[in-house]
Amino acid sequence: MKQKTVVLGVTGSIAAYKACDIISRLKKQGVEVHVILTESGSRFITPLALETIAATPVVTDMFNRETPWEVEHIALAKKADAFLVAPASANFLGKAAHGIADDMLTTTILATHAPILVAPAMNSAMYLNPVVQENIQLLQKRGYRFISPGEGRLACGDTGVGRLAEVEDIVSAVLDALNPRQDLAGVRLLVSAGPTQEALDPVRYITNRSSGKMGYAIAQAAARRGAEVTLVSGPVSLPAPQRVKLVPVVSSDDMFRAVDGAFAGCDALIMAAAPADFTPQNLSGQKIKKQGNGLNLALKNTRDILLAMGQKKEGRILMGFAAESENLAQNAQSKLRRKNLDFIAANDILAQDAGFGVDTNRVTLYDDRGGARDSGSMTKDALADWLLDALWARIQRNRGRAGAE
C-alpha cells in the first residue's frame, strides 16, 4: 500500500487498551498513525504506551507549544487520509453531533475533510439510550461511518450491545476507507431490506422482527464499492445509506411492485428483505373490537417476490436469503432451485449471533453449482462485503464466459 496517514482518536473507555492493537495492525499495513488522546482516555491508557506503538508523538493538550510553527489541530486534520475514533465514548458522540469543539479531538475532527470512522464502546444502557442513538443517526447523516459495537459481556458485568467491534473489523473498515474498492463500478444493484406491514384494520398490522440492518449494510457497502444501488425498504428505524436511491414501501404488495418496477434496470438483485408470507384476506375499514371469543383471522399468501423475479431472470444474478429455524441446508437448497437463484444465504434465526435485530450474522452461502461456504460469525457490515465478493466473482465469471462466446 502507498503510505497513508490515519489520525486515531482515543476517548475514555476501558476498551482504550485495544488502540495499541489497532495501531500495530495498521502499521503492519504500511499506514502512518497519529494519535489524539483525550483527557478521559489518558485515565485508561498512557500516552507513552501509544507513542511506543505508533512511533509518533501522541497529542493530548490542545495548547501544546512544542511545535509552535504550525496550528496542530489543522495540521493533523490536513494530514489525515482517514480519521478513526476508537473507542468512541457517549460523551464524544454528543459533542461531535452538536459541533462542540472543546478539546484537541473534537477540534481536529471539525477541521478534517478525511472520511471519519467511529467505533463506539460503552455500557449497553448508554448505547441504547435514545439520546445516544439520535446522536449516532445525526452523525451518520453527515457522512460519519460507524463500525457497530458487538454484543457480549461488558466490563461492568452487564451483558448486551456495547463492546468495541473486533479489531480486525475496525482495521478492515479503515483500510477500505483509505483504498476504497471500486470493483462494482457500473453494476446496477437492486437490494431489498426490512420487514413489511400487512394491515388488519386502521390500527393493527402483521409484521416480523426484521430490523433491515443486513440489507442496509449490503446497500451501503455496494455503493461504497462503486455500484449504482436502488434500495427498496420496508419500515425500519435506520438512516438512509449514502449514495443510494431509497424506495420506501410498507406492505408486501408495495414491495412487490417496487422491486418489479426496478428489476428491468438492474444487473443483480439481492433480496435481503423479510416480506410477510401472509396477509389478511379482508381489510377492516374500522378498528376491530375485542370480543369475548377472540378473533378468527383468515389469511392468504402474499406474492412471492423472489420467485416472480426468478421466473423472468434473463441473465441477471439473483441472491436470496433463507431465515430458517430447522433443516437449514435442505430448506435453503430447495428455495435456491425452486426460485431459480444463483445464491441463497441461509441463516439459523435461533442462533444468538445471527438472525433478526442483532448486529452480527452467520450464513451459509449456497450457489447453483452445488457450492456451500460458511461465513463464520461476523458483523453485518463485514458480511455485506463477504456476500458482495461472491456476487462480484459471479459477475466476472459471466463476463468472461460472454467474452469467450
Protein architecture, described:
- With 405 residues, the protein is α/β, with parallel strands linked by helices.
- The chain folds into two domains: 5-178, Rossmann fold (3-Layer(aba) Sandwich), CATH 3.40.50.1950; 188-400, 3-Layer(aba) Sandwich (Rossmann fold), CATH 3.40.50.10300.
- The chain has 13 helices and 21 strands.
- The strands form six sheets. Strands 12-11-8-13-16-17-19-20 form an eight-stranded mixed beta sheet, with helices on both faces.
- A hairpin with a 5-residue loop joins strand 6 (150-153) and strand 7 (159-163).
- Helix 1 (19-28) runs parallel beside helix 2 and helix 1 (19-28) packs across helix 8 (167-178).
- The chain is globular, with a radius of gyration of 24 Å.
- The relative contact order is 0.09.
CA-atom Rg in angstroms: 24 Å
Query: Helix/strand-derived class?
Result: alpha/beta
Strand segment tally: 21
Total domain units: 2
Give a topology summary:
Layout: E1 5-10, H1 19-28, E2 32-37, H2 47-54, H3 72-79, E3 82-88, H4 90-97, H5 104-111, E4 116-120, H6 124-128, H7 130-141, E5 145-146, E6 150-153, E7 159-163, H8 167-178, E8 188-193, E9 198-199, E10 205-206, H9 213-224, E11 228-233, E12 244-248, H10 252-263, E13 268-271, E14 278-280, E15 299-301, H11 305-311, E16 317-324, H12 328-338, E17 343-348, E18 360-361, E19 364-367, E20 372-374, E21 378-379, H13 380-404
Helix pairs in contact: 1-2, 1-8, 3-5, 4-7, 9-13
